[in-house]
Amino acid sequence: METKKAYVITGPTSGIGYETALELAKFGTVILVGRNPEKLQRVQKAIENAGQKAVSVICDISDITAVKRAAQQIAHLGLTVHGLLNNAGIMPQKAAKSAQGFDLTFATNYLGAFALTEALAPHLPDGANLVFVGSAVEDPERKPAKMVGIKGARFISVEASARGEWKPGGSKIAGIDAYATSKLCVLAAAMALARETTRLRFNVVEPGITRGTALGAESTNAFVRFMFGHIMAMLPPFSRYSSTPKKSAKVIAGILVDKPSQTGVYYDEKGRPMQGSELSRDTSFQDLVVAETRSLLVKAIAGGQEYFQQKNT
Ligand SMILES: NC(=O)c1ccc[n+]([C@@H]2O[C@H](COP(=O)([O-])OP(=O)(O)OC[C@H]3O[C@@H](n4cnc5c(N)ncnc54)[C@H](OP(=O)(O)O)[C@@H]3O)[C@@H](O)[C@H]2O)c1
Question: Does any ligand 1 atom lie closer than 6 A to the CB of residue 62?
C-alpha cells in the first residue's frame, strides 16, 4: 500500500460513508472528516485494527468556517490527496439552520461540500478525483420518486435555497424539497467544475436506494421511515435501484480510485453512467449554480457567523 497516497471522506461514521472509508483504506491513508469525535475515533480504530492507516479531522460540514479550517488542516498533513468523497448528507423532516444561518440540509449536503471542494482543489495533484454523492430524487421525472410523491428539486436560486425557500408546489413529504434541491445543486456544480478545471476530475455517484443507513432515521414520520427503509428496497419498481452500504461502498471507492481520466460523469448504483434531470444537464444552469454559490460563500464568510440573521436584523 502506498501510504503517502490519501483519500478524504466526509461522513465516514455511518451508512455508506462508513463502509466506503473501510474500502478506501485498502488504497491509502483515509482522512476521516466528521462532526463527532467519538464516532470518528471508532472508525479510525476499525481501520487501524485492520493494519491500515487513517487520520481524523473534526468538522461540521454545514459550517463554512469550520470547513475552511478543516481544509487547511488536511493540506498541512503532508499527505498527497488523490481523491475527495463528499458523502456527508442529511434528510431531516424539520427545517433547521446552520452556523451561518443557512438551511441545514442545503448547507450540509451542498454548500459545505462545495466549500470543501474549492478549498482543497488547489492542493490536489493533477488527475485527482473529486466525487460527490448525489441522489436521483433531484429529477422530477425519476419514476420511483414520482410514485411516492417526490416532486424533484424546487430550485429558485442558490441564495433562496440557503434561506430554505423552495419553488411552490413541492412534495407533501416534509424535508424532501430541501434534500432534492441540495442534490440538484451538487450534480449541477460538479458538472460545471468538471468543465472548468480540467486538470482534476469531478464525478457524481447516485448510490441507489440504500437500506440500513441512518439517512432520514430522525424522521418522526413512520411512513417516511418505512418507505425509505423497507418498501423502496423490496417492491419491484424500486428494488432495481436497491443497494446496501457495502455494495455502494465498492462502487463508490472503485470510482474514486479509478485511474482512467473520466470527468463530468454521473454514475448509477452499479457504476454505469446515468442521466440527471434536464435542468442538471443544462450547462448555463450549471454555471449559474457555481457563480451564485461562490458569491454567497464570499458574502457569508465576510459577514461572519449567522450571515442571514445579521442581514435580516
Ligand atoms: N441511503 C440512501 O438510500 C441514499 C440514496 C441516495 C443518496 N444518498 C446519499 O448518501 C450519502 C450518505 O448517506 P447515508 O444513507 O449513508 O446516511 P447516514 O447513515 O445518515 O450517514 C450520513 C453521514 O453524514 C454525516 N453528517 C451528517 N451531517 C453532518 C455534518 N453537519 N457534518 C459532518 N458530517 C455530517 C453523518 O455523521 P454522524 O454520524 O455524526 O451523524 C454520517 O456519517 C448522503 O449524501 C445521502 O444523501 C443516500
Answer: yes
